[in-house]
């Protein structure tokens, strides 16, 4: 297993916002969907996995080692990366895209200085951007381009595990589909294990064969995506499934139909 959480519990102000959550992520390519309504504890679980929140109870292990002793470890920081929802806040607005990626390469000492520009170009190409985008500031990019740049920066350290925290919810439907296609390709090519956090089953369906449903901090359902979608056992799962938009063919009013010429 790349990452394993056992009985995670996080208590804030006497309330358990995460209550006994366990999950495992094997070596990639693999996708696990962590779904639930707003406030169900999804992002808190993700922060525990990233070492940003210390659980009140329970453990997180990375390849068998408790991450409490790895948080400042450069190999762990490289292996586990996050792509967030906020495309505007994900990148420093004062820093050009190429500089933001170069900063990561230097912090982890991944390539010689003379090779940095070439590596930045490779990373941008991998996510469908060009070398010209390296010279732009985040505000000069579209929402989809900013998300691609953020993904390129995450890939710069050659991670093994990605947390995808609502990575497409701020994008329109067309751009969302393109980003999901990109993530699906990158997961396969880079053999990534991904945890996708979302409340949208239609998005999860694109990337994850296995899902966990959270409700009020607890796991209420877990299994193969098809089983959970078609045979939900918990009301929270049924509510999420029923919230997925469905297109129904409209029946035109008779008077609106074009009249056949005599």
Automatic annotation (TrEMBL):
Keywords: ATP-binding, Nucleotide-binding, Transport. Belongs to the ABC transporter superfamily. Residues 241-262 are annotated as: Disordered. Residues 3-241 form the ABC transporter domain. It comes from the Bacteria. This is ABC transporter domain-containing protein. SUPFAM superfamilies: P-loop containing nucleoside triphosphate hydrolases. PROSITE patterns: ABC_TRANSPORTER_1, ABC_TRANSPORTER_2.
């Amino acid at each position: 297993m790349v990452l394993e959480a056992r009985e995670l519990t996080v208590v804030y102000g006497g309330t358990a916002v995460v209550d006994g959550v366990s999950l495992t992520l094997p070596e990639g390519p693999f996708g696990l969907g962590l779904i639930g309504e707003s406030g169900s504890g999804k992002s808190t679980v993700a922060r525990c996995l990233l070492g940003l929140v210390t659980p009140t109870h329970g453990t997180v292990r990375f390849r068998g080692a408790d991450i409490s002793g790895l948080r400042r470890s450069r190999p762990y920081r490289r292996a586990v990366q996050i792509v967030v929802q906020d495309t505007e806040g994900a990148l420093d607005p004062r820093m050009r895209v190429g500089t933001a990626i170069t900063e990561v390469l230097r912090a982890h000492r991944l390539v010689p200085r003379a090779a940095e520009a070439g590596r930045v170009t490779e990373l941008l190409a991998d996510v469908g951007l060009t070398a010209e985008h390296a010279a732009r500031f985040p505000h000069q990019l579209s929402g989809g381009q900013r998300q691609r740049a953020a993904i390129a920066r995450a890939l710069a350290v050659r991670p093994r595990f990605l947390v995808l925290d609502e990575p497409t919810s701020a994008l329109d439907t067309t751009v969302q589909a393109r980003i999901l296609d990109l993530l699906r390709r990158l997961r396969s090519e880079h053999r990534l294990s991904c945890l996708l956090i979302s409340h949208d089953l239609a998005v999860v369906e694109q990337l994850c064969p296995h899902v966990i449903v959270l409700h009020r901090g607890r796991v209420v359902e877990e299994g193969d995506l098809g089983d959970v979608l078609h045979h939900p056992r918990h009301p929270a799962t049924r509510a999420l499934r029923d919230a997925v938009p469905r297109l129904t063919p409209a029946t035109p009013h008779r008077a609106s139909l074009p009249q056949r010429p005599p």
